[in-house]
Amino acid sequence: MKSFGGFVIKEFNHIFRDRRTMLVLFGIPVAQLLIFGYVVTNEFRNFRIAIFDMSQDEVTRELTGKILSSGYFILDESLTSTDGIDEAFKKGHIKEVVIFGQGFGKRLEKEGLATVQVIADASDANTANLLVNYTNGIIQDFAIRYRPAPAHPPAIRIEERMIYNAELKGVYMFVPGTMALILMLVSAMMTSISIAREKEMGTLEVLLISPLKPYHIIAGKVIPYVVLSFINAVVILLLGFFVFGMPVRGSLALLLSESLLFISLALSLGIFISTLAGTQQVAMFISMFALMLPTLLLSGFIFPVENMPLILQWISALMPPKYFITIIKDIMLKGSGLEFVWEETLILAGMTLLFIFLSVRRFKTRFV
Amino acid sequence: MKAAVDVRQISKSFKGLQALKEATLEVRPSEIFGLVGPDGAGKTTLFRILVSLLLPDGGSATILGHDTQKDYKMIRRITGYMPGRFSLYHDLTVSENLSFFASIFGTTVRENYHLIRDIYGPLEPFAHRQAGKLSGGMKQKLALSCALIHNPSLLVLDEPTTGVDAVSRKEFWEMLAVRRAEGITILVSTPYMDEAALCDRVALIQNGRIMGIDHPDGLVKAFPWPLYAVASEMMYPLPGHLKEFHLTRSAYRFGDRIHLALREDDPESVESFLRSKGHTKISLSSCKPGIEDCFMELMVNGQH
C-alpha cells in the first residue's frame, strides 16, 4: 500500500512539475467551456444588412425602423439601385438585403397586399436561414398590427431568395472550413514537429555548425511541406468540386494563389512554434491547442463570428483561418475577384511576414 | 609550436549558474587532448563555445588561429563536432545519414571516403539499415564517420564513449589514435578516468574550473603525497575514521580499498590509530597513484 501511495505521489509530481500538462488539464476545459458557451448560443443579433427602399413612404420607413430596432439587424447601407445589391454582397459586409417595391405603402392600403423581397447570402446556409426567418417574423408581426386596415388585415407577401447557395447546402461552408483546418494543421504541426525533432535528437547542433545558413535550414524544412500541402489543397478542392458539387465561380488561379499564401502562413507559424518548443511533444500540444480549436471555434467555420461576444470577435480577428475561409468562400461562391478580397489577402500576407520575421529572429545560428 | 586550440579565460553563466570560470587551456596540433571531469563540470559548455554554438560571457578562444566568435564560419568548416548524444537521423539509413552530413558540408562520401574507410567499413553491410536500429557502438562509429567526412583539422568529441560497450570503447580509442597519426587534432571529453590515460594530455575540470593540465603520466608523477590502499574488517566506517586521523590528506573509496593520502609518510601510526578505533585485520599497502587520485587531490586542493 505504501509503495502504491509512493507511485501515486510520483504521478502527481509529474503533472504538477509540468506547467504545460497543468495548462492542458485545467486551462483547456475552462477555455473550451467559455468559448463554447458564448459561441454556441443561438442568440442572434447585430447582423449587418442593407435596405433598398424604392417606395420611400411612411409605411416602409416605419417597417424599416421596426426591423432595425429589433436588435437583430444593423443597417450597413441604404441602397439606391438594383446594381448595388450584388456589389454590396461581394464586399462581404452584409448578409442580407431587404427590398421594398415601388408604392409599397399605397398598395398595402389600397389592395391590402404588398411585397417585400428578402435576399440572403447563403454561402453560410444556417445563418442565411436564420436571417430570413427573423426578418419574416418581424414583417408579419408588423402586418398584423398595421392599424389603418378596416375590414381584413393587410397582407405582406415575402419573396425569399437565397443567393450563392440556393439549395442551402451546408457543404458550401464545410469545404472551405475543412480546407483551412487541414492546411493549418498539416502545415503548421508537421513543420513544428519536424524542427523540434532535430532539437530532440541533437542533429540541430550539427546543422547549426555546418556551413548551412539558418534560412537554408528553414527553407529546406519548409519546401517539402509547401509542395505536400499544396497537393493537399488541390485534392480538397477536387473533392469539393466533384463529390460535393462545390462550384468555383471565381478565378481558379486566384484561388490557388490564396491557398498558397495560406499554406505559407501556416508554415511560418509552424516554424515559429518550433522556436518556442523544445520537444516534439510540446510542439504537438501547442499546434493542437493553439491552432486546431481556434480554427474550429473562432474562425467562423462552425459558428458565425457575428454572434460572438465582442471580446471573442476581437480574438477571432487574430485567427488566420477566418480570413482564409472568407476569401475562398467569396472566390468559390460569389465569384469575387481580388478587388473584393484584397483586404483579407493583405492581412494574411502581413501575418506571414510577421511570423517569418519572428522566427528568423529567434532561430539563430547559435544556441544563446 | 602554435596551439591548435587556444582557450583564454573563458567564462559562461546560465541564469546565474556559472558553468565555466575563466577556463584556460592550450591544445597542441595533432594531439589527443582529454577533458576529464564529472557530469556538470562544464565540458559540454566549453565544447559548444569552441564550435561556436554558444558565445562566452568573457574570454576568447581560437582554433588554428581563427577566433571562435569573429571567424565562426571558418571554425565551422575546419571543425568536426560530435555532440553528446550521437546526432544521427534515426529514421534515415546508415548511408543516407553519411551522405546527408557530407552534402551539408559541401562534399561527397566518394571524395572523402579514404578518411573514414577503417571506421565506416565495418558498417557497410548495414548501409541500408535505419540508424535508429544500430547498436550503441555502431551508432558511435557512424556518428564519428559523419563528423570526419568533411576532412576537419580538429575533431571535437563530447563524451563519445558514454553508453557504449567496453569493446567498442577500446576500438574507438584505437580509431582516434589513427586520426592523430594522420595529423588531426582531437579534443575529447570523458567522465571515465581510465580513458584519460589514453590521451596525450588531459585537463581536469570541476565546477567550471580547469584544475590541472599535464600528460597523464605527468599528473600521476606530480601526485605529492604518499598513497596507501587500506582495508580492514569494518569497511563501512573506515573512510570516516581515516578522515579523523590527523595526518590524513584525503581518503576515498576505490573499489574494495580506501585510497589514503598522507601528509607524512607514517603508515605505522595509521595502523595504531585504526586499531584504537576497533578495526581488525588491517591491510595497509603502498600503492601507485592513478588519474582518479590526481583528480581527487585537485578537488581537495580546490576546496582549500
Structure description:
The complex is a heterodimer of chains A (368) and B (304). Chain A has 368 residues and is of the alpha/beta class. Chain A has three domains: 2-39, no CATH class; 47-163, abc type-2 transporter like domain (abc type-2 transporter like fold); 171-367, no CATH class. In chain A, 67% of the residues lie in helices and 10% in strands. Chain A is built from 14 helices and five strands. Chain A has a five-stranded mixed beta sheet, with helices on both faces. In chain A, strand 1 (47-53), helix 3 (58-69) and strand 2 form a beta-alpha-beta unit. The mean pLDDT of chain A is 82. Chain B is α/β, with parallel strands linked by helices and 304 residues long. In chain B, 35% of the residues lie in helices and 27% in strands. Chain B is built from eleven helices and 14 strands. Chain B has helices at residues 43-50, 72-78, 94-104, 109-120, 136-148, 166-181, 193-196, 216-221, 238-244, 267-276, 291-303; strands at 5-14, 17-27, 32-36, 58-63, 66-67, 79-82, 154-157, 185-190, 201-206, 209-214, 227-231, 248-254, 257-262, 283-286. Chain B has a six-stranded mixed beta sheet with strand order 6-7-8-3-9-10, sandwiched between helices. In chain B, strands 2-1-4-5 form a four-stranded antiparallel beta sheet, with helices on one face. In chain B, strands 12-13-11-14 form a four-stranded antiparallel beta sheet, with helices on both faces. The radius of gyration of chain B is 22 Å and the shape is elongated. The two termini of chain B are 35 Å apart. Classes of the chains: A alpha/beta (368), B alpha/beta (304). The A-B interface holds A 201-212, 365-368 and B 14, 48, 51-55, 72-73, 75-77, 79, 81, 83-90, 101, 104-106, 146.
